[in-house]
Amino acid sequence: MIVEIGHFALVLALATAIIVSILPVVGVHRRDAGMMAVATTGSLVMFGLVALSFAALTWAYVVSDFSVKNVWENSHSLMPLIYKYSGVWGNHEGSMMLWLLILVFFSALVAIFGRNIPETLKANVLAVQAWISLAFLLFILLTSNPFIRLDPAPAEGQDLNPILQDFGLAIHPPLLYLGYVGFSVCFSFAVAALMEGRIDAAWARWVRPWTLAAWTFLTAGIAMGSYWAYYELGWGGWWFWDPVENASFMPWLAGTALLHSALVMEKREALKIWTVLLAIMTFSLSMLGTFLVRSGVLTSVHAFATDPSRGIFILCILAIFIGGAFMLFAWRAPTLKAGGLFAPISREGSLVLNNLILTVSTATVLTGTLYPLVLETLTGEKISVGAPFFNMTFGLLMLPLLIAVPFGPMLAWKRGDLYGAMQRLWVFAGLALLAGLLLWYVQNGGPILAIFGLAIGCWGMLGAVADLWYRGNFGKLPVMTSLRRLKGLPRSAWGTAIAHFGLGVTVIGIVAASAFNTEHVVEMKQGQTTDAGGYALTFDGFREAVGPNYTEERGHFTVRSGGAVVADVWSSKRLYTARRMPTTEAGILTFGLSQLYVSLGDPMDGGGIVVRIWWKPLILCIWGGCLIMMVGGFVSLSDRRLRVGAPSRKAKPVKAVMEPAE
Amino acid sequence: MILWILLALMTAIVAAALLYPLSRRSEALAPDNAGEIEVYRDQMKELDRDRAGGLISAEEAEYARAEIGRRLLAAAGKQGAGADGISKTSALRKLAIGMVTVVPPAIGLCLYITLGSPGLPDQPLEARLENPGNDMNLLVAKAERHLAQNPNDGSGWDILAPIYFRTARLGDAELAYRNAIRLIGPNGARLSGLGETLVVANDGIVTEDARSAFEEAVRLEPGNVRARFYVGVAQEQGGKAAEAKATFEEIAKASPPDAPWMGLINEHIAKNGGTVAAPSLGGPSADDVAAAQDMSQGDRQEMIRGMVDSLASKLEADPNNIEGWLRLVRSYMVLGDRDKAQAALKTGLEHFPAEGNEGRQLIALAQEIGLSAAGAANPGATPKMGVTQ
Questions:
Q1: Which of A60, A196, B67, B156 keeps 20 to 30 A from A308, CA to CA?
Q2: Phi, then psi, of A345 in degrees rounded to 5
Q3: Is B240 on the interface with A (CB under 8 A)?
Q4: Are strands A594-603 and A609-616 parallel, antiparallel or unpaired?
Q5: Rounded to whole angstroms, how far apart are CA atoms A107 and A126?
Q6: Which CATH code is given to the segment(s) B131-295?
Q7: Residue among A644, A647, A637 nearest A492 (CA)
Q8: Is A214:A178 a contact under the CB 8 Å cutoff?
Q9: Which segments of chain B have a pLDDT < 70?
């Protein structure tokens, strides 16, 4: 009965979505506050219903109710409890339920915390959210219903895909979806603004925190996914420019641009139309990502099940929402009032540069992702666009951006002083170069580009420190006064510095792990020793072990440095009994920020086994940097953000070079 | 019934919640620019706080204050249109109320009746395992859980193995037989069961593995007719007709003349060039033999037949597969279905004419197993083979 109640709750949510899609819009049109208020109540009701439905599905997973087809297909009674919970979204139907749950959760948040939003804007925003919910509810109920029952019920489930039986599944999808779907709120705000034909300070005040929250979660989700792929798939890589990865990376790039343009909007009331366009683009890319991953166009771990009818359905959703939003934009954008003026060299100017580079690089990634698909559809020719393309194009585009990052926060609003910023930064530039060279020296080798890359990473980190240094006015004021000034800095300034610092850390990780990474592929027999990454690994042999729903052969390695044992590591090959599917579990040893990665290959004749050993210097910086960026996001989010960007008095007004913002 | 009451209750709560804002006379809306003005006021307050905290200089604060002031003035200057108070009885309101009252029950009921299964109760596995009833799958699942915790319970594996075999879970059956043999030792039944699993898994071919299992079974239990029969089949498939004939004749000698398997044995003796010692008049056909044997044998035949049928339908869809035709013809003969074998041969020859290389393979097979290839494609090209039975 619980399952059926969950099913009915989902159907009722659909009915509610229909009402919330229509009544508030009519209410705004007729200026009827009662009908507008239906948006608030309705969004809360929808959240309640979807949450009830999701809870019913989760319950079916936890108690292994195999009369539910979705549970039977993706669960097994012997699975550890945590995977029964996370397994709910470890399949197509369940992941769409999670997407929907987060969507209505965000709607409910807007409904509860949106007291400051003008009633009409709020009603429109919630109505647009309801349109999206309606589309996904229909998609779930008609093509991917998780509540389909089986009678008679099978006695045992078919188990969850073993690759997904990992703690990562509990974290990665929810974080990623919080990011993806979070941008839906920005999208709804943008569409609502276009419908009303006006954007005011309240709009800007509300869009930026949503962007920031979504961006923060998306950063965490992507980093988590990358780390998961790194340790679970056993290839030793952390980013493959795989279309599925790109699908999540594109909204991130566009979202990063949105984050910065929303900043200009909030503080200076400029770049309004551009921000609206970016908000639409970002969520469109999120939906495109969902389409690519869910329709089965791409085959990967994420394409749980392929079904052409689903693909066509999502394609229709995509066409209606993206096409509709862009048409609305083309029609209504001219009615929006353009914002303030600023000089090319100013905080706004640097943010425009940031936006320019980020959107161009998004377009690059989009091209590299879609071109092979389009080509295959049109000519049947299969090509793969891989790392070389992206490194050449995306890498080159990122270079000027990374160099420019520390300048941005140093420039004043409206009109800035590049020379002054450079003067302040040159010491740190020198320090960064020095630190980069030092790191190279420590690693003892590596091409010149790597040194340059490391220097850019350090540049990013030190630039952030410099930002705080000058804001605290260290060196001019007594240290204690400076510290007090730092403490009093707005949290958003802290957030900026922390996030930019994190970006530098990530760059260092990427450069070091790519340039100084060593790989050894050897055939080892019991007792043999191999040198890798400055350590000597001895293969001590295999031991059989039995897990709750798998059997495994665990290989044990002793790691020595200079003759002394420093660590030992297990690396294993598992066989999941229900699906008869083998997986490899890599053994990973962490030394400081670097890692030694041991993965087992195929057994050879004569008792040996292929062992791959990677030495990954500073690789933890990649994800550590992302975590720091995430912290920066949260710190900034905790700010009251009620400031305007005051232009500096010192610079002379240079009216002649003022340009319109849009 | 309780379910329906609960569903009705849910619908009512949802409709009531949505009706609530519509049921009140709405207050006049704040003007459009109210939110904007509010934000600017907040910004002013924040500015004062920042100034008090020493975060910004007096000049900066002044500039910012001027900036906010300009915006505030601009916002306040705009004509803010408030909403009219609309009575709850306006026509539009009535329409809205009607929609909220009708949509949830109508959509909810229609869609749920189409998609849902209101009659099905929840079936958590634990509760089902406690009362498995006659559900074979549940009993198996229960045994599996027991074995997952006690993987060294050999007799458990021994009980499960033939059940797996009957339900066509061949991989599990092989594993179970091997575990049982490893844990409680080999015997004739286990070894021949393992062998038979391997044979079925390999489309009726007695592989090296299977043959050694059968031979071991015969060594342990010389009276195991099933194992001896398959040893004979192995010899037959290996082209050792004489040895095969000897094996089958031995079985015939050791069996009572009215044993249910005698028909099958005699068939094989004949196939390997021997004469049947005492042809019983109107001897049982292969089907009868299968039916007469113990139940598991019957199921086994049923299963093989199912596999052959699926091969046949595959070939119907894609006839361009000579290996498939060869296997199908041979399988029908193994099943004792001469007519179907003949028909399959004929269809096969239609797709692969007898003149061609593949066609010749089919005809060679026909001669080998004693089918008539005549009339199929090239009458007269091959002599009719007599059917020795």
A1: A60
A2: -95, 95
A3: no
A4: antiparallel
A5: 6
A6: 1.25.40.10
A7: A637
A8: yes
A9: 25-32, 54-55, 78-89, 275-304, 306, 334, 368, 370, 372-389
Q: What is the SS3 assignment for A8?
A: helix
* Tokens coding A204: 């800007």
Check if CATH label 1.25.40.10 holds for domain B297-369: yes
Q: Is A442 exposed, middle or buried (0-12, 13-18, 19+ CB in 10 A)?
A: exposed
Q: Do A60 and B122 touch (CB under 8 A)?
A: yes
Report which residue type is found at B298: G
- A114-136: pLDDT as tens digits: 777 888 889 999 999 999 999 99
Q: Which residues contact A271 (CB under 8 A, 6 or more apart)?
A: A261, A264, A265, A339, A348, A351, A352, A661, A662
Alpha helices in A31-87 (DSSP H): 33-62, 69-74, 81-86
Helix/strand number for chain B, H first, E second? 18, 0
Q: How far apart are CA A269 and CA A201, in angstroms?
A: 7
Q: What is the pTM of this model?
A: 0.76
A476 interface with B at CB cutoff 8 Å: no
**CA closest to B45 among chain A residues:** A642
SS3 A528: coil
ipTM over cut 0.95: no
Sorted by where each begins, the domain ranges of chain A are 1-165, 166-389, 405-515+634-640, 518-616
Which of A16, A115, A142, A151 should be substituted to probe chain B, the one whose Cβ sees the most B Cβ atoms within 10 Å? A16
Q: Enter the DSSP assignment of B25.
A: P
Residues 90-149 of B with CB under 8 A from A: 90, 92-93, 96, 99-100, 103-104, 106-108, 111-112, 115-118, 120-126, 128, 135, 137-138, 140-141, 144-145, 148
| Angular region, A253: left φ>0, alpha ψ -120 to 50, beta rest | alpha
Which tokens belong to A30?
């007729």
Q: How far apart are CA A199 and CA B309, in angstroms?
A: 69
Q: What is the pLDDT of residues B242-252, one digit of tens each?
A: 888 888 888 88
Spatial CA neighbour of B148 closest among A78, A592, A412:
A78
